[in-house]
Structures are given as C-alpha cells and as structure tokens.
Write a structure and sequence with these properties.
heterotetramer, A mainly alpha, B alpha/beta, C alpha/beta, D mainly alpha, A: mainly alpha, ABC transporter involved in vitamin B12 uptake, BtuC, two-stranded antiparallel ribbon, 14 helices, 2 strands, about 0% strand, D: mainly alpha, 15 helices, about 75% helix, globular, binds adenosine-5'-triphosphate, binds magnesium ion
C-alpha cells in the first residue's frame, strides 16, 4: 500500500461518512461531560455511563424483544447513574469527581457482574438475541450525489444524536434554563441569590448528561454493533471528558475538537492496516489532542499577557 | 450422597479445578470451559471453575489456594498466566497440573502440557480464505485480497498468521493485516474491517477475542465473509444474532476442550503423563470445524481442496511456517504476503 | 399593627460550627419604611438577612410575612413572595453581560421557550435610565468597576420589583454623588410603598436615610429606635460601648528621616485600544500616608497590582528605596518591604478553607522565627497568631478556626494584622475598611497611622473620601488612568472639590501635578 | 465532671462523628452486599463470613491484603499531593505504566549487586516518573493547560509508547506473550515475612506516608501546597511561586508513582507483563479522595479497600458469587464514606440541642 492508496481512501465521501460513524459515540461522550460540566457538576463517570448503557441496551432489548424499549432502558440507566452523582454530591455532600471515579470502577465490574448473571458469561452477550435499531435512508436526500452519501444511511441513533446536539446548543445558548445552567456552573452562590434553583438546574443538566451519554453507549451496541463485549467503550468516555475539559464552556470548540479527534481516529483506523507499529499509530489521536491543547493554551496565555482576555 | 461415596473408596471421585482468568472471551477460555463441561459429564469427575481475573499479581496467591484445595488435577495455562502455574507446581510437587496451552520453555515433572499447532491452523485458514477470494462465491469480489484482524502484534498471536500469510503468498493472494491492539474494542475492530473491505478484501479471519465481534459486524454490513476462531462461532451466534452468524462461513478451532478431555482421561486411567505434547491437525488439536453452514456455503471444489491441504499438512508434506520457531523469518513472510498479487 | 409587613420572632441561628450568630432576635418591618440595621462586624446582620431571604434556615423562631407564617427554604421562594436582596459580597458572574446578570432567574420569554434577548435589552436599558444608573448593559461584568457592579446588583433587585428590598452594605463602594442618587431612589421606592432594609457601617448615612434603626450586638438586638429618637453618639455607644475617634490628627507624629520609599516613574499600561494607566508618576515618602482618590475603575486597582507585582506594566519603572523592582517577583517585592492589603479580601486576601493561623502568616510563612531548618514551628505560629488575634481583637473561636466562617470585618482584621506584622517600609492599603464596622475601621485606621508614625510609607487607595481626607498627608486624584489632581496637604481641600477632579471636570497643569513626584 | 464526659463521646465532636458515620456506612455497604449474596447463593451466611473474615484466617491472605494495599497506597499518596495543590491530574495511571517499563529496563540489566540493583531499579523509575510528571506540570504552570486533559492524553500515549518499547527493545524471548524478559534475580525484592510476599516495599510505603505527612503539615513547601490548593489567587498574592510549586509537586508525585510501580513489579511480578493500563493510578485517585488527601487517610483507605477486595476474592473463589461483587461493596462504601452530609441532619439536631443547652447554662 502506498500514499496514493491512502489518499484515495481518505478523500472520498464515504470517508466523511466513516468520520461521522466514528464520531457519534465521541460526540455523545463530549456532550455528556459538557452538559454536566457547565452546570458545575462535573461528570467524570461518562465512561461508566456509556458502558452500563451499552450493556443495558442489549439486556433491555433482549428482555423486551423491542429495540426501542431497549434504548429506553439504556437511557434510563444512564440517567439513573448520572443522578447518582446528583444524589451523592448534592444531597450527601460527596465530591462529584470522587463519585464519578467510584461509578466508573463500579460500572467496569458491575457490567461484567450483570453480564454473567444473565448469560453465565463474562466476556460478551453473544448468546443473547438482543435487538438493534435500523439504519435510516432518508428519502430524496439519499439520492442527492455526495450529500446523500454522507448524510443518509446512518444508524437511527446518529440522527438522534444530531438532534440532541442541536437541542443542547439551543438549550444552553438560547433558553432561560441554559442561562441558569451556566450561572450555576460559574457561581452557584450568585445563581442561588437570584432564586435560581441550582440543585434543580444541575439535576436537569445531569439528566441530559446521562441521557446523551447513554445514547452513546446504546449506539455502540444497538446498531453499530449488535453485541456487548466487556469493556467495549474502551476509553471513549474519557476522551469526551478530555475534550470537554479543553472546550471549557464553549460549545463550538467542543464540537470542533470532537470532530478533529474523530478524523484522527478514522485516519488511525486506516493507518493500522499499513504494517506500521500499531501501538504507536494508536496514539495518534491522543497526540493530536495533546498538541492541540498545548497550542491552545499557549495562545491563550499570550493573549492574556497582552490583555486581550479577562 | 457424599457419605455414600466415602464408604466405597473404589468409586473415586476426581476433583478437577480449572483456573482461568474469566470465561466468555469468545475464544479459548470458553473452549477450555467447554472441556470442563465435557468432563463434568463423567460420573466420577467433579469440576470447579475459578475465575481468577486478569490481574496477574493475584494469580500466585490464588494458585496457592487452589493447590492447597485438595484437587486431583489443576487445569490452567495460556502464555500470560502459565508462569503462575509453574510457580505453584514447583511449590507443590505432589500436585498434578495440566497446562492447556503451553509456551514456556521450562518443564516440571508434575505438569503435563499441550501446545497447539496454531501455525497449521493459520495455514488452513489462509488456504480457505484464499480460495474464497479467488472464487465466484456470492459475496466474493474479483480482487484477490484477504484480511486478518489480530488482537495484538505479539509472537503468540502472530503464530496464527504465519501460515496464513505463507499460503496466501503461494496462492498469489494479497493479505491485509490489522492489529487493533485490543481484545475489547469491538467498534475499532469493525472500523478496521470495514476499511479492509473497502480496500477490496472479501474475507477476514479474526484472531482477536472480543474485537472479533466487530469483524463479523463489519462483514454483515459490507456483505462479505468472515472466518471464526477457537470454536464454532457460527453456532455461537446463529441463535442470538443470525445476521452475524451468516457471515461466518467457517471457524478454525483450537480444540482445547478435547485436549482437556484427553488429559482428564489420562488421569482417570491412572496414566497421567508429564512433559509437553504438541497437538496439530493429526492429533485433532486444531482443525477446521465442518458444520452444515460450511457445507452449504462453500462450494464443493473449494472444500475438496481444503481437505487436501488438511491432509498434506497433517502428513507433513507441507512445511508450515512458524513465527515462534523462526522469529527472524517472520518479517520476510509478512512482507511477501502484504505485497503479493 | 396592620402595617407590619414582615415580622421576625425570636430568631436564633446556630451555624454548623457551633457559632451562635443570632440569639432570639425579634424585629418588625413596617410597610413603606426604611429600616436600618447597624452593628459591628459579626453582629449577625447578614445572617439575619439571609434567614429572611431563605438562604439560611433559622434554628428556631418564626417569620411572619404579610400576616402569614412563612418558611422560605430557598431564595426562589423569597423572591416569589416579593423579597429582594443585595448581598454584602457581589453575587455576579464575571463572564456574564450586565443584561444576562439582571435577567437571570426572571428571563423574558419568546416563542414559549427562548430568551427574548431584545426585550431583555430594552427592559434593562429602561430600568437603568429610570433610576439614573449610567451603565452600559451590554458590557461584561468583568469589565465593570466595583461601583458599576454595585449598581448592577441594585438593578437586579429593582428588575424583580421587590416589595421588601434588603440592601446589605450597598454604599460601601459608591462615590458620594452615587450614594446621594441611591438615597433619592430609595426614598422614591419608599413612597411607592416598598419596604427597605438597609445595612451600613456609615452611621451618618444611616441617620440620613432611615425611618427606624435596629442595633445589633453579639447576635442580639439591642432595640429598635425611631430615627428622631437616637443620635449617632447613642448608636455608637450601643454598638461598641464606647466613643469613637473621628479625627486622627492628634495621633500623627512627624517622622524624622524623610526619604522616598516608593517611586512610581512614568508608569503606563497599554491595551489594544486604550491606556489603563498613562504616565503615572509619584513618590511616596517614609512616614506619610499618600491618599489615592478616584472613582473606582480609573486605574487605581491596576496601579496597585503593578506595584505589588500581580500585573505587568507596559512602560515605566517602579523603584523601592531607589532599587528598580519592576521586574521582581511578588515575593521579592514583599521581602524588600512591600505589604499589601488587597481590595478583594475574599479572592486575594485569604484562603477561605484554611485556618486563621494559616492565613495570618501567608506572606511571611518562611520567616526565620517561625521556622526551623526543615520544618515550620507550629507552636510558634500558633503563639504568633494568638498574639495578633489579641492585638487586633479578632473575633474568632480560636486560631484554628476556618477563616471563612468569620465575619467580614474580622476577616479584614486578619488581613491587616498579617500585613502589619511584616513591618513593611511600604504599605499598599486598598479599600482597607470596605465593609468594616466603625469600631474595626477606627482600629485599622489607628494601626495605619501607627505604622506611618514608625516610618512606613502608606499608599491609601480608597473610594471612601472621608477616609482619604481623614488619614492622608498628601492626595493624588485619578481619572481615566491618569493623575489629574495633586494636593500637597489635605488642609483646605473639600470633598466636593475632590469630587470635581474625580469626575474629570477639573484638571491640574503638568507643573502642579509634578509635585506628586517632586515634593 | 459528668458533663465533660458526655461531651467527649457526643456526636458533636467532629472526630467521633466521622467514626460513627464511617461505621454506619460500612454497615450499610455490607448489608447491601449481604442481600446480593442471599439472592445469588445457597449458603449466604458462610460466604458472607468468608468475605469479612477470610483475610485474617491465613497469614498468606493477610499478606495479600498488604500486597494489594502497597501500590494503590503509593499512587494514592502521589495523587493526593496533586489534589491538595488543586490540580486535577490523573496522570499517575500513565506513570505507573511507563514507570513499569523503566523498571523493567533497569531490572533486566545485569548489575551484580543485591543492594545496588534493587536501589537503582526503584530509584531510576522514580526519577523518570518525576521527570515525566513535569510535562503536565510545566504545561500547567507556564501555560495553564488543563491538566486533566493533558494527563488523560499522556496516559494513552504512555501506553502506546511503553508497548512499543517493550515489543521492540525489551522483549523477553522466552515468552510468546508481550512481556519483558524476566527481571534479574539481583533486582527482585526479598520476601521478608514468611508465607507472604511482603517486601521492603511495605516499609518504603510507611516511610513515604510519614514523609508526605511531614511534607504537607510541617514544611514550608507543604504549607504552600495547602494554601495554593485552597486558593490559588491568594497563594500568588502572598508571594508564593506557583511555577516552582507546581513543578515540585508534580515531580514529587511522579517520583512516588515511580516508586509505587517499581516496588509492585519487583515484589510481585518478576517481569513486565502489562498490556493495558493497570488501573492502579485511578485506584489511587480513589484512595486519595477517600482518605481526604491526607497521607494517613490514604493508607487507611488503601488497607480497607484491599481487605475487602481480598475477602471478596476468597469468597468468590469457586462459589456462585462472582468476584465482581466487590464492585458493589466498594462503590457503596466509597460513596457513603465520602458523603459529608450523610447523617448531617442527625448531627445538627444534636448540635442544636447542645447549643441551646449551653445557652441555658
Ligand atoms: N442562554 C442565553 N440566552 C440568551 N442569550 C444568550 C444566552 N447565552 C448567551 N447569550 C447571548 O449570546 C452572547 C454570547 O454568549 P456566551 O455565553 O457564549 O458568552 P461568551 O462569553 O462568549 O462565552 P462563555 O462565557 O460561555 O465563554 C451573549 O452576549 C448573550 O447576549
Ligand atoms: N457560613 C457560616 N458558617 C459559620 N459561621 C458563620 C457563617 N457565616 C457567618 N458566620 C458567623 O456568624 C456570625 C455573624 O456573621 P454575619 O455575617 O451575620 O455578621 P455581620 O453582622 O453581617 O458582620 P459584617 O458587618 O462584618 O458583615 C459571625 O461570628 C460569623 O463568624
Ligand atoms: Mg476477491
Ligand atoms: Mg455582613
């Protein structure tokens, strides 16, 4: 394989399609960390939420024999986990970060525990006849050249996630709730002093966070895959947390960074077939984010020095 | 019940412990467990499964517990975990051990080990895959390309694909190799497989544990073929996820279950051996699983050729390249396979 | 009785740490009155207000509002019931715009779910205009001066149209003119039937504006008086049980070896579009207090940050006893003799979660006498802290108490004690008595004069003109980043005249201003 | 007299309250576990007893508890220093991995001394760990780069880099797994207590706890760490040098991480076999939080969690209850113990009672 082959595979509409496919769970992870984070309730249990949701999607759709009910169960799982953060940190005063770490360790083992309970198997759900959600061909659009190839034919959840993305954007930037969420995150005392019910606002943010994180988990086992494999999230949740940490409160930076990461990830998946040291190739997306944040921080520091910020 | 057995000492019950990191790896820990279920059927065998987890710092301690647990035989193994078996075996020389998958070069009197000729297995898989890609089977394409997804770029894993590459080169078929460096990230496995299919591959063999599911997903989505590993993966999925099962035209088995049964048989017969035995196609240690779906999907011409190859390998007529035996030669074999056309 | 709108009955509040902040306090507020609450720092005023506003829960006692017993469990409920509060510490979010800050919690809506930004803008603009608050509502809070922030706080309450408006020390950062405006507004509200609770340490203001006055001491009410029935002296007496010094001139002693301790030479801070400081030059001598007057936000804060090393100037030099310290680190400057009482006492001045003793040594924690070679000497630190607590009569349970639980005035005393304790040659005192009760303020003032008498040069930056006039030997006035007025002596200078310079109406010639550097 | 006595054991005493609260949390966690065991097993009482008592039934088991405790206590110490300084850095995970690779490199080198070799095999990874932590430290101190992001990315990068090194430069040819060669015998730490695998690392840990304690509470550096951690602006204003401080803290933290990983490998492994991040760093973060970033607290948390883990492991061996049950106990426990308000209402009522009582007298 040579460089020409490589570019041939990258510079295609189907590659854009691939990027979207790779990006969906990462977008979910980023949004999940972001929505919780801007309300001042850091959710670092994204990985655990996605993992449990991925499992519950499979188990749920198996029990109910309905993909949609499975999705619902997955989402409820995600929400319940996110609410655990609310319960413990808001009602019981535990550090939300600690709750997050605890939930992650919990999810890692508990997903295996549940898997074992229902399949007598600790590795995968291969023996369960679970359901998946269909892919969607959008009429008319699918026949438009290029655009149709890119935006039609994705899994149902992909469209749900795009929808969620738009809704979250509008919510944060255009609605009273969004303003209050930001206020709660920036200074809870100040928010409280004008009658913002900070706890309620944060609970809502966490519910959204759990929901979107769960969508990411369900995406993986309810369309993209049809089987749960132990530890199937493989760090995607953490990437979301890192991206959200980098984006701060900015929604555009969040999405741009996630997409950049996804592009690097997709390229990495191609590079991996080129007989190069795979363990190093695997670090490409991480190196990219690292370089990104270094450049970002340096420019911010320069700006601050020059007084263009603050 | 137990009391009755005590009174009739001639009805000895053999207690066998299986120490595995976990089961459900879609791979040979499951197969070993299948072996356990096989011998569990025996009237006079009682088995205990111990899932010790994948944190090897705990294995010595667990092995010691098991060694002190009064078992007649302890079954364990695999390149990552066998060191702990040998540590315990050295400490408890009267305890019998069975290493179901041996790679270690040293040896102890109370340990009987088997190793599987996975290179032969790879050769068979490579033959089948090469024949499929050059065939006019329904989902095959004109390109002569096959793929393999290997969990990690390490010798124990590469041993599977040395023969695979060798035979593909001989048959003029190009090989695409992908190492996801993971046994869990099925999504990545899927993306890599889809990329392979995109490049013109039409059949992929997976040797990657949980990641293998991603390979089947990709094959189902792209309308191509996949080959399973370690056990009958068609059977594994046909009930629950028929769409996935239908891409698995054949599976290359590493018959650890049979090996386990053999070992227990020796034990019961009172002639438990010592030393290392290599189980190849001849010994039924590895082989192609022939099921109805294989018969239905793969044209008879191809099947005949595969059978021929099986025979040749078994008889030693074909010398299969082994990465473990010839680590320095591997690079060249790989290069050739990647470039072949 | 029918005109009582809000009635507190036997309110007791015990904080989680065991502090009894309010003890059986009973107060009734009449509809349409301005009711002041005075008392020294830590008397429990803010706590009482927080209880009314639903931020804190009373441990016992009842609140009756409009004839009904109420239990507000959060401020939302209080706001809905028609109670508004301007807090002692700013409740503003720096990255929000003024509009966002004002509408937060009561946003105008369009299409059922979205914020109607247009309406919000026009409403807030109107509101500001109606009450004569000159403020650009599209600005970010971070870009506002302290005075402007205070206005935003008041606008927030007005926007909510509260019936009972609680103002916890709203005037401490306003200029005299702004205070007059505010009082006019308050009277207007009163006439419209609003009830106003007003907390201040400036007793003359209290006297000016109030109908009735409640005095608090040690968490207890010492009685409510009609304004006409009580004099400032009586109030003082009830608050601190002694007389206050109002004129410090008799305390001043002339310092012998007059020499320049701090010289600021052509200092400028240039930003993309404008100068924050422009060619500022002055000299501060040993044994003097140099007052810096000016409306907040005219560069004084930046000047101080440059001198102390928290900010970098773009041009110019700072000399400490003839050594150029412009490039020195904060630490080096401190070691060379600069001490600094910061304006933002909660942000810069203390670590809220740390103990009083940890806070009281932060600027000299590595000093020899409280350290051995490797370790800090805990006993000596505690002894030092206890000594300072005593000397500065800081009200705290012990030196191990979290400083965050002290009242504002006592926190400030900790800061002053710490800076005092380094025996600096140059003290930068920025709003040193902002929000401090009369007793403590007097105390801090005498400490500053004491330092001056011992030969320290003190740069006093304050928005409180009477403080500047009372303490300073010489005065410079800042306007838009420049020195526009210089007074060699405070004698004969009136507050009004200073005010004209502060507002940029008058301006001296360069020759006259040169005195700041050369006198 | 009597009054004083009642006050001493009353719940209003912060310390007593914490202990009561912790005990109740443990009871609840165990209660829940019991319920789960009852649901899963036929002989719940026996299993439950095993869970609680197994670690003290055999010297070896108790040794295992200590063995498990050591690496997570080291990483807990390392992380707690960072947390204390207000730095949310999870990079110790990566340090454990790459530090392990460095350990392997040193331990596989022939050094003919039973004294020097272990010392070098611990010291070099520790120094490398410290230096590597300077990367996020520098980026934070100089450019205020988000340390969480940087450390998470570095973790993944160290994983790839470490694997690359092991595969290409440090591979044991006697194994077909991806692992380093067996460590030289000279490098390995000796077992010092019969029937256990406890090595000198246990004492190193105790010394580390003591030193970190001294550092935090008795030294000037510790003071500036604590002040910076509570209010960075204040620390700056007070003249503390954030840059130097961040660099020092990161270095010490990485240094501790390096020791943690090397003693783990030199005591329990014999060769480097990790192919994924070992999770010890994340676990350390948990210990740090559970122990309230206090070195002694970290030690106690690590012991406690290890004790339960061992109990769960013994219980699960060969039973119907999967060992993952530990996850349930641990989660509930961690959450309850760290819940500051848990039982707070109760305590406040107590406080009020006492407060009014004091008022009256
Ligand atoms: N929730 C909201 N509702 C209505 N308008 C909003 C809302 N949030 C922001 N805006 C408007 O959009 C503009 C940009 O808002 P944004 O919050 O992005 O400010 P920013 O300071 O640029 O970003 P950030 O503070 O999040 O870093 C604001 O000036 C405001 O007028
Ligand atoms: N959150 C808190 N936790 C514990 N104690 C507190 C808390 N807030 C205030 N206190 C204590 O309660 C007492 C009353 O404080 P409060 O703030 O009400 O005083 P204040 O009269 O407003 O003083 P100032 O004039 O300085 O603002 C003080 O002793 C203070 O230390
Ligand atoms: Mg083909
Ligand atoms: Mg107050």
């Amino acid at each position: 394989m040579n460089l020409a082959d490589f570019f041939a595979s990258v510079l295609t509409t189907s590659f854009v399609f691939v990027i979207i496919r790779v990006a969906v769970p990462l977008v979910c992870a980023s949004l999940s960390a972001y929505t919780a984070g801007i309300s001042g309730m850091n959710n670092i249990a994204v990985e655990g939420i996605m993992l449990m949701a991925a499992l519950m999607a499979v188990l749920g759709s198996y029990w109910t024999q309905s993909a949609w009910l499975g999705l619902l169960i997955a989402i409820l799982t995600g929400i319940v986990m996110a609410l655990m953060i609310a319960l413990f940190s808001m009602r019981l005063g535990a550090n939300p970060i600690l709750v997050g770490i605890a939930l992650n360790t919990f999810a890692t083992s508990f997903s295996i525990f549940l898997l074992y309970l229902f399949t007598k198997n600790k590795g995968s759900s291969a023996s369960l006849a679970s359901k998946i959600l269909p892919t969607v061909d959008i009429p008319i659009i699918k026949d438009i050249p290029f655009i149709g190839d890119i935006i039609s034919g994705h899994y149902v959840i992909t469209y749900l996630v795009v929808l969620a993305m738009i809704v979250i954007y509008l919510l944060i930037y255009k609605t009273p709730l969004g303003l209050r969420i930001k206020a709660a995150g920036l200074d809870q005392e100040a928010a409280r002093s004008v009658g913002v019910n900070v706890n309620r606002v944060r609970i809502i943010s966490l519910i959204i966070s759990g929901l979107i994180g769960a969508l990411g988990g369900a995406y993986i086992t309810m369309g993209y895959m049809s089987v749960f494999v132990k530890n199937i999230i493989s760090g995607r949740g953490w990437i979301g947390i890192a991206v959200a940490g980098m984006a701060g409160s900015s929604f555009p930076i969040l999405i741009i960074t996630t997409m950049l990461f996804s592009i690097f990830q997709a390229v990495t998946n191609i590079f991996l077939l080129y007989n190069l040291p795979s363990e190093l190739i695997n670090t490409i997306p991480y190196v990219a984010v690292l370089v990104g944040i270094i450049i970002f921080s340096i420019t911010e520091t320069r700006k601050r020095k020059k007084g263009e910020l603050d | 019940e137990g009391g009755e057995e005590q009174e009739q000492p001639e009805e000895k019950v053999f207690k066998v412990a299986f120490v595995l990191p976990f089961i459900g790896d879609q791979s040979y820990f499951d197969t070993v467990n299948a072996g356990r279920l096989l011998v569990e059927e025996y009237e006079n065998v009682e088995t205990t499964l111990i899932e010790a987890g994948d944190d090897t710092s705990k294995w010595d301690s667990i092995m010691t517990d098991v060694a002190e647990g009064g078992y007649d035989l302890i079954v364990s193994g695999n390149n990552t975990y066998e060191a702990h078996l040998y540590t315990a075996a050295a400490a408890y020389p009267d305890q019998k051990f069975f290493n179901f998958d041996y790679t270690k070069s040293e040896d102890l009197a109370n340990v009987y080990s088997v190793t599987y000729d996975t290179a032969e297995l790879g050769y068979v898989a490579g033959t089948l895959a090469s024949l499929i890609t050059t065939s006019d089977m329904e989902k095959a394409n004109p390109e002569k390309m096959i793929g393999v997804i290997v969990g990690m770029d390490i010798p124990a894993m590469n041993e599977f694909i040395g023969g695979f590459c060798q035979v593909a080169t001989e048959l003029g078929v190009q090989v695409v190799i992908g190492y996801p460096e993971s046994f869990a990230d099925a999504a990545k496995g899927k993306e890599m497989s889809l990329n392979m299919f995109e490049q013109g591959v039409d059949v992929i063999w997976q040797v990657a544990g949980g990641v293998g599911v991603g390979v089947f997903e990709a094959a189902a989505e792209a309308g191509r073929y996949a080959l399973g590993v370690d056990q009958d993966q068609y059977a594994q999925f046909i009930e629950s996820q028929p769409a996935l099962a239908e891409v698995i035209v054949a599976s290359m088995a590493k018959n650890c279950d049979l090996a386990v049964k053999r070992a227990v048989d020796f034990l019961i017969a009172g002639e438990y051996p010592s030393g290392v035995e290599t189980l190849g196609i001849t010994e039924n240690g590895v082989g192609l699983i022939v099921n109805d779906y294989y018969l239905e999907q793969v044209p008879e011409a191809i099947r005949t050729q595969v059978d021929e190859v099986l025979g040749k390998v078994s008889s030693g007529e074909v010398e299969v390249f082994s990465v473990l035996a010839d680590p320095d030669g591997w690079a060249a074999v790989k290069e050739a396979a990647l470039a072949a056309k | 009785m029918s005109d009582t709108i809000l009635k507190l009955d036997n309110i007791t509040k015990i904080y989680g740490n065991g502090v009894v902040a309010n003890k059986n306090v009973s107060i009734d507020l009449k509809k349409g009155e301005i009711h002041s609450i005075v008392g020294e720092n830590g008397a429990g005023k803010s706590t009482l207000m927080k209880i009314i506003f639903g931020i804190e829960n009373a441990s016992s006692g009842t609140i009756t509002y409009k004839g009904k017993e109420v239990h507000f469990s959060n401020s939302m409920e209080a706001i809905h019931a028609g109670i508004g509060m301007v807090h002692q510490h700013f409740m503003l979010i720096p990255s929000f715009t003024v509009v966002q800050s004002i509408i937060l919690g009561m946003e105008p809506i369009k299409h059922g779910i979205f914020i109607d930004m247009k309406k919000a803008l026009s409403q807030t603009k109107e509101l500001a205009k109606k009450y004569n608050f000159d403020i650009d509502v599209t600005k970010k809070i971070a870009d506002l001066s302290v005075g402007e922030k205070q206005k935003v706080e008041i606008l927030k309450t007005l926007y909510r149209d509260a019936e009972v408006i609680i103002l916890d020390e709203p005037t401490s950062v306003l200029t005299p003119q702004e205070t007059v405006n505010l009082f006019n507004e308050l009277r207007k509200f009163k006439d419209m039937g609003h009830t106003i609770v007003f907390i201040s340490h400036k007793l003359n203001e209290v006297k000016q504006i109030s109908d009735r006055i409640t005095i608090m001491r040690n968490g207890e009410s010492r009685g409510t008086y009609n304004n006409a029935d009580i004099t400032i002296e009586k109030m003082t007496d009830l608050i601190i049980d002694r007389d206050l010094i109002t004129d410090y001139s008799h305390l001043r002693k002339d310092y012998e070896n007059v020499s320049t301790v701090l010289k600021v030479d052509n200092l400028s801070i240039e930003r993309k579009t404008r100068f924050i400081l422009k060619d500022v030059s002055f000299a501060l001598k040993r044994g003097e207090i140099l007052g810096v007057a000016g409306v907040q936000g005219n560069g004084q804060a930046e000047l101080v940050r440059c001198i102390t090393g928290l900010m970098e100037q773009t041009h110019g030099k700072i000399l400490l006893a003839d050594n150029d310290i412009s490039k020195d680190s904060i630490k080096q400057r401190r070691v060379k003799g600069i001490a600094y009482i910061p304006e933002d006492r909660m942000g810069d001045g203390i670590a809220e979660q740390a103990s009083v003793s940890d806070n009281i040594i932060s600027t000299y924690y590595d000093r020899k006498d409280i350290n051995s070679r490797f370790f800090m000497l805990n006993k000596k630190i505690v002894a030092e802290a206890d000594r300072l607590i005593k000397k500065f009569s800081i009200k705290t349970q012990s030196s191990k108490t979290k400083i965050g639980s002290l009242s504002g005035g006592n926190i400030q005393k900790v800061v002053v004690a710490r800076e005092y304790n380094t025996a600096p040659s140059c003290m930068i005192a920025e709003q040193p008595t902002h929000g401090i009760d009369i007793g403590s303020a007097e105390f801090i003032h005498t400490q500053l004069i004491d330092m001056r008498n011992k030969g320290a040069g003190i740069l006093l930056v304050s928005a409180d003109l009477s403080e500047v006039m009372n303490l300073s030997d010489r005065i410079v006035v800042f306007y838009e980043g420049e020195i526009v007025g210089y007074f060699k002596s405070v004698k004969g200078v009136t507050e009004n005249e200073l005010g004209l310079y502060m507002l940029g109406v008058k301006r001296q010639t360069p020759e006259e201003l040169g005195g700041a550097l050369n006198d | 007299m009597t009054k004083k006595k009642t006050k001493k054991i009353s719940l209003t005493n912060e310390f007593v309250f914490e202990i009561v609260k912790t005990l109740i949390s443990i009871l609840i966690a165990l209660g829940l576990t019991f319920v789960v065991i009852v649901l899963l097993s036929d002989n719940p009482i026996e299993l439950f007893t095993k869970l609680l008592t197994a670690p003290v039934t055999k010297v070896r088991y108790f040794g295992n508890v200590i063995e498990m405790m050591i690496p997570i206590a080291f990483s807990g110490l390392a992380v707690s220093l960072l947390f204390r300084t207000g730095l949310f850095n999870l990079g110790i995970e990566g340090i454990y991995f790459i530090g392990g690779v460095v350990t392997a490199a040193v331990a596989c080198t022939a050094i003919d001394s039973y004294v020097l070799h272990p010392i070098l095999s611990i010291l070099i990874p520790a120094i490398v760990g410290g230096l590597l932590m300077l990367i996020p430290g520098f980026l934070k101190a100089k450019f205020n780069a988000n340390e969480l992001v940087v450390s998470l990315m570095l973790n993944s990068i160290y994983l790839g880099l470490g694997l690359f090194i092991i595969k290409n430069y440090l591979r044991g040819i006697d194994t077909s797994a991806i692992a380093s060669p067996a460590f030289q015998e000279t490098a390995m730490l000796d077992y010092i207590i019969p029937n256990t695998r406890i090595t000198i690392s246990f004492f190193l840990l105790l010394i580390a706890v003591f030193l970190v304690y001294l550092l935090l509470y008795k030294t000037r550096l510790g003071y500036s760490i604590r002040m910076t951690g509570t209010n960075m602006k204040f620390a700056l204003y007070s003249g503390m040098n954030a840059f130097t401080l961040f660099m020092l803290v990161h270095f010490i933290s990485g240094f501790l991480g390096g020791i943690g990983t090397s003693v783990e490998l030199l005591s329990l492994y014999g060769r480097f076999t990790w192919i994924v991040l070992p999770g010890l760093g994340f676990n350390g973060a948990l210990m740090a939080m559970l122990g309230r970033n206090n070195p002694v607290g970290v030690l106690i948390s690590a012991f406690f969690i290890s004790y339960l883990a061992k109990g769960a492991e013994v219980m699960a061996l060969g039973s119907d209850v999967p060992v993952e049950i530990m996850a349930i106990i641990q989660a509930v426990l961690v959450l309850l113990v760290s819940s500051q308000y848990f039982l707070r209402k109760w305590r406040e009522r107590q406080l009020l009672k006492e407060g009014t009582a004091n008022e009256l007298s």
